[in-house]
Amino acid sequence: MSSFLFNVGLLLLSTVAAIQFCADAFSLYANETAISEIFGNEIENLRGIKYLYQYNIFLYSLLGFSGLTLLYTIFLAITGQMRSVYGPRVRRRVK
């Protein structure tokens, strides 16, 4: 159960970063919508959390986790440990 809860926490953290990224990337299209008001006006005026959005901490964490995942996958592919992570291959016999 604790691994499920941990994965849900990671999913929630990455969701906020993805929404912030989309809101910043498509700000021209989202002009005068609810998301532009939320990320533009309301969150930037909160006391403790405004620095997370002002300095794009969520976006950098999303980019960092993506980079670490890429490096880990490349490392597994180079060392040949990719099969051991996903289990043995199943071979089907055709009659």
Question: Can you describe what's shown?
Answer:
With 95 residues, the protein is mostly helical. The protein has one domain. It has 5 helices and no strands. The mean pLDDT is 78.
Summarize the structure.
Helix content is 69%, strand content 0%. It has 95 residues and is mostly helical. The longest helix is centred in the first third of the chain and has 24 residues, at 2-25.
SS elements, strand count:
0
Question: What does the overall shape look like?
Answer: elongated
The structural class is: mainly alpha
Q: State the distance separating the first and last CA atoms.
A: 43 Å
Mean pLDDT: 78
**Largest sheet properties:** none
Strand percentage, roughly? Answer: under 5%
- What share of residues is helical? 55-70%
Computed CA radius of gyration, to the nearest angstrom: 20 Å
**In terms of quaternary structure, what is this?**
single chain
Helical stretch tally: 5
Count of separate structural domains: 1
SSE pattern: HHHHH
Which regions are unreliable across 5 or more consecutive residues at pLDDT < 50? Answer: none
What's the structural blueprint in terms of helices and strands?
Blueprint: H1 2-25, H2 34-42, H3 50-54, H4 57-79, H5 82-86
Record keyword descriptors for this entry.
mainly alpha, 5 helices, 69% helix, 0% strand, elongated
